[in-house]
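ok so i was messing around last nite and threw this chain in just to see what happens. nothing serious, just curious
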Amino acid sequence: MRKCVWMIVCMIVFLSGQWAQAQNLITEIRAKVIPMNLEITTQKTTNLIFPYPVKSVDRGSAEVLVQKAKGVENILQLKAASDTLKETNLTVVTADGTLYSFIIRFLASPAQLNFSLGKVIAQTPWAIFAAGDNNEAKINDLATQLSHKKRIVSSLRTWNNAIGLRCNGIYVKDDILYFQMELENKSAINYTVDQLRFYIQDLKRAKRTASQQVQMQPMEITGNATVIGSNSVQNIVVAIPKFTIPDQKVFMVEMLEKDGGRNLLLRIRNSYVIRANVL
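result:
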């Protein structure tokens, strides 16, 4: 009898141990992040919509082109750099601490381009905008209006081989400076803009002394700042967070031609900036 009881006790202990191991295995499996298969292509954009802002992105290959949608925190846009993309992976971490894993493959024509990940609340907007970006439409609208205004500044201009760069006006509203720029091409050859840069640097640079440039990142550039057609004039408006220029420094607008040498450099002194027209 005692032997029988002892065998039952041993069996219970054994089964209890097996159950504990099974529970641990289930917990371990649940803790694993199972990658999601994703096909991308070169000519179409794949959109990944996350429930929280994206905080970290890691690509297994540089052949996977990834960027956040402009002004949006929770949407990633993917493309393949070429049709020779080999299978790779993508890892994304969002603000709530969730890790998302993807196996990326090339497919010329993916069946699906938009993926909503995590919980989706009915009637909730898909996009989560960065702080302050909800005014982007207003900035764009104001910049478009300013592009049609008459010139109020006449002395800020520069030319190089029939290419002209002119600042027609400087405006300010809600701590944003708006530079109304005119791009003119009096030649028979189109001008393709390679770079359009804005920065502050020393007014006079001593020989053998490096000049430090402070880059000014535009919030918005409204208008065509890519190509200036032959014998044409076009206006753009550049919106930049407000600033003033320290003594002995100057604000520079630099426009470089792609595969060419018709480069332009426009200097704007602080006296023009502080007299910006209030809107």
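not much to say yet. Residues 25-30 have pLDDT under 50 and may be disordered.
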